[in-house]
Amino acid sequence: MPTVLVFQHNDHIPPGLLGEALERRGIEMQVAHLYDGDPVPDHFGFDGVASLGGVMGAYEEEDHPWLAEEKRFLAGAAERGIPTLGLCLGCQMLADALGGSAYKGEAGEEIGLLEIGLNDAGRDDPVLRELDGPLPVFHGDTWDPPEGATVVAATGRFLHGFRLGSVVAVQSHPEASCEITGVWIDRHPDRLIEAGVDPEILRAELRSGETALRAMSERFFGAWADEVTGRS
Would the CA dihedral through 88, 130, 182, 9 be positive or negative? Predict the structure, then answer.
């Protein structure tokens, strides 16, 4: 059975729809709860790797030493051609790990249910082309792409994804169901208000878009799972 290693960085930012899609395809998921003391593995015996979102910055290694360990692992997985997926913080982690950079954005926080602006490269990519509708977005940090990476999406304020070999990275949260985003809204209403977003209006938008998001995420994670099983 193929196995995907998932790095989880906070208790309220779980694999969500990614986990559901992998389970439907018979792919085992091993979750490393780094925030809770789980170690970064010392081997690369996985068919795929995914790095989830998190409330910390990819650059906050002094406060979270395991970030540096995870980056080394992500770089090693990419070097070995292991299908590697980054979501939000995971996207920033991969950018930094592979020779780009991650840092606090100057444009304020970008929060909402947003189109991520796929370009021609994104629409041609067998995985990324599936992100063809509005997605949950919750971030203020951003990144510069590694050398050789192809940027695949951007809003007017931030880059939103890249492909580099076996690496697929997106700034949005295709894994986040309405239940998960509801927890984020409850935990961080001040962030939304500061960003000019009404928490209850966003909650309603996410609920109304749930069916379309689930269908899109199933296609996206299914396409990524095909890369995982193709390698295994």
Answer: negative
Distance CA 72, CA 75 (A): 5
Beta strand 84-87 pairing with 167-170: parallel
Q: For 51-106, what is each residue's pLDDT tens digit?
A: 999 999 999 999 999 999 999 999 999 999 999 999 999 999 999 999 999 999 98
Tell me the domain boundaries of the chain.
Answer: 3-176+213-231
Burial 20-39 (b: 16+ CB within 10 A, else e): bbbeeeebebebbebbeeee
The CATH number of the structural domain formed by 3-176+213-231 is 3.40.50.880
